[in-house]
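User: Please write out a complete single-protein record containing the residue sequence and its fold in token form, without commentary.

AI:
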Amino acid sequence: MTSDRVFVTELALRDAHQSLIATRMRTEDMLPACDRLDRVGFWSLEAWGGATFDACIRFLKEDPWQRLRCLRAALPGTPIQMLLRGQNLLGYRHYSDDVVTAFVRRAALNGVEVFRIFDAMNDLRNIRVSVEAVIAAGKHAQGTICYTTSPVHTIDHFIAQAVEIEKMGCHSLCVKDMAGLLTPARAAELFAALATRVRLPLHFHSHTTAGIANISMYQAVENGARYVDTAISPLSWGTSHSPTESMVVAFRDTPYDTGLDLELLQDIAGYFQDVRRKYREFESEHNGIDTRVQVNQVPGGMISNLAQQLREQGALARMPEVLAEIPRVRADLGYPPLVTPTSQIIGTQAVLNVLTGRRYKSVASEVKLYLQGRYGRAPGPVNEEVRSLAIGRDEVISCRPADLLKPELDRLTAAASAFAPSEEDVLTYAMFPEVGRAFLESRAAGSPAAAAAPSSLPPTASPAAVAPTEFNVTVHGETYHLKITGAGHRSEHRRPFYVTVDGMPEEILVETLTEGALTGEAAPVAPRVSHRPKASKAGHVTSSMPGTIVAVMVQPGDSVKAGDSVLVIEAMKMENEVPAPVAGTVRSVYAVKGDNVNPDEALLEIG
């Protein structure tokens, strides 16, 4: 029996928990398994990139660069792999070439060995600079095709892309099936065609959302794939991936035997079974097998986060409507694959269409940029009526979007000089200016908000502020153990506190209505009343969903036309411009940058 060994990439530390528990796994729960993971003999461990960078600074208050360094030290024998969104890097916009090159260089220096590089539009112009930077750094550049189905995504289409990726100098080729759409027959057809047209090693990546990825993987291997992605069993199935142990067994005693130690994998599985229980509050009811993905094409990571975001909007019950709207929005936008950031762009617009009650009543800022061509070429024809509604007569670009960007690394470095002492910190700020700056400033101030494992309150806190720090709290008959592990800096009447709830780290924001509770002072003041009136007039400007004010673009006395952008609100990790509902003069502004707002509140008044 000849050997055509299959090599395995383990996804437990990135895509698996992104798909199942909204990317919430903390570094402290990864490190205890690293010695065993390192001994398995995986081809690589995917442990960085994707949504992990965002989740680290936005939710977990961890430094993603420090996570990478810790994992590199704990995994000396196994290459660390990251998912890189080409010109988007790890953010949601295109960055200038100097930022892309700097990011790849620093990621390589901090421990990334394998870069899986893709573009959400499959516009390969958008991965060229990243590929060149990885090759220059002496690391493995894996060019990636995002698999999807549509009238324009044929076998010939994918073959043409594979040939172009090989010409770029990539070391391997990955077919990235984000939603689990590859059927066994289609996988056999696609990989057989790829194996005859390119000489690159072929890598298979799919999700088990429809329950068929295991069979599709085997068919891909029989037709030329020699590298596969799997997830340790407690973090597998549903919107995640094929179980590592199961596929090791499936390939055993065949020419494709992985040679991996099944008993060691079972021991690792026992560890992650306990870890997953800690994150049960982030479990989504949409994590099971669901063949509807063959229609709505929503990928694993997207559906987990979409459910979490809809829950935050108080609209989880409307998930079926959103899932039905997503294919319609995708068709309007020319059938882009649903992968970050296009999945967020289309998902956010679908949510807006559903929650506002009228399609494209509110158009997300990123949808406008997409329709201007600023994310790249759409794979198919765009609905011109929707484009006209979104951008009017604005020019549609045809060049590589980054060609319009001036070098920006020096400007970002200067802007972040007060709170970003390293190039890695500058790049964090570049990826997420608002969230990244808040994280870095908190760290610079010595707040445990930016520590990987906060364990104590700031030493400057007064005794009144730190005692007591441990409680049992009973709500609706359920008792929870709360321990305060840290506190952030107070901003007028607000202060973040970092706690554990039954051992699970959380962040809570406390807003006082009387003076003293957050400062140690005892002088009472009158209760605060919201300064924003209820929306009741035609000239009141409101948000279509709960969010945070990112920018106020007008002031009292300004004249505006109906449809002019007057506010920018961040909701569901995307920025949305809020248009003026009527023409007139801005009479009052009730919101400021940083405010959290709700749909029933008047943010501006135009008369």
